[in-house]
């Protein structure tokens, strides 16, 4: 890969991470579904019931529990705030960016995962 293109891609990645990190600094969550999901996670922490999703004293069965468990866990660890709710999603965003690079670096054979990484991520040399 030519050095100017490599520098451009690195700059684009850094800019993307910074833009996504800025959302954690907002004092409120102003999206409709995010407020609903944060409320469900907050109820888990407040009630101590991590098995049932409850909204307005009724079971809420629309989604799997894992995202709410993550939100509730971060509420429990960091306190109830917009930042602690957004942080798990941001960490998974970073994990999604790092994983192909790590797989690409450790793949030395011709397994399907290696071919997928080679086709979707630029070479590191």
Total DSSP E strands: 2
Q: Tally the helices: what do you get? A: 5
Mean pLDDT: 79
Give a quick account of the main beta sheet: strands, pairing sense, barrel closure: 2 strands, antiparallel
Q: What portion of residues is helical?
A: 55-70%
Low-confidence stretches: none
Shape: elongated
Strand content: under 5%
**Could you tell me the radius of gyration in angstroms?**
19 Å
Assembly type of the chains comes to single chain
**Domains, number:** 1
Structural class: mainly alpha
The strand line-up of the biggest sheet is 1-2
Give the end-to-end Cα distance, rounded to a whole number of Å: 7 Å
Order of helices and strands: HHEEHHH
Describe the structure.
- This protein is mostly helical and 125 residues long.
- It has one domain (3-98).
- The protein has helices at residues 3-22, 32-47, 66-78, 82-106, 112-120; strands at 54-55, 58-59.
- It has a two-stranded antiparallel sheet with strand order 1-2.
- Helix 2 (32-47) packs across helix 3 (66-78) and helix 4 (82-106) packs across helix 5 (112-120).
- The radius of gyration is 19 Å and the shape is elongated.
């Amino acid at each position: 890969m030519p050095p100017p293109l490599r520098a451009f891609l690195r700059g684009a990645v850094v800019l993307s991470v910074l833009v996504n990190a800025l959302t954690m600094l907002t004092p409120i969550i102003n999206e409709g579904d995010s407020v609903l999901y944060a409320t469900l996670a907050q109820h888990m922490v407040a009630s101590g019931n991590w098995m049932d999703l409850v909204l307005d004293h009724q079971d809420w069965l629309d989604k799997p529990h894992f995202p709410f468990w993550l939100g509730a866990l971060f509420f429990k660890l960091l306190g109830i705030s917009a930042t602690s709710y957004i942080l798990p999603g941001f960490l998974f965003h970073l994990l999604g960016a790092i994983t192909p690079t790590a797989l690409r670096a450790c793949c030395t054979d011709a397994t399907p995962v290696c071919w997928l990484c080679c086709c979707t991520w630029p070479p590191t040399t």
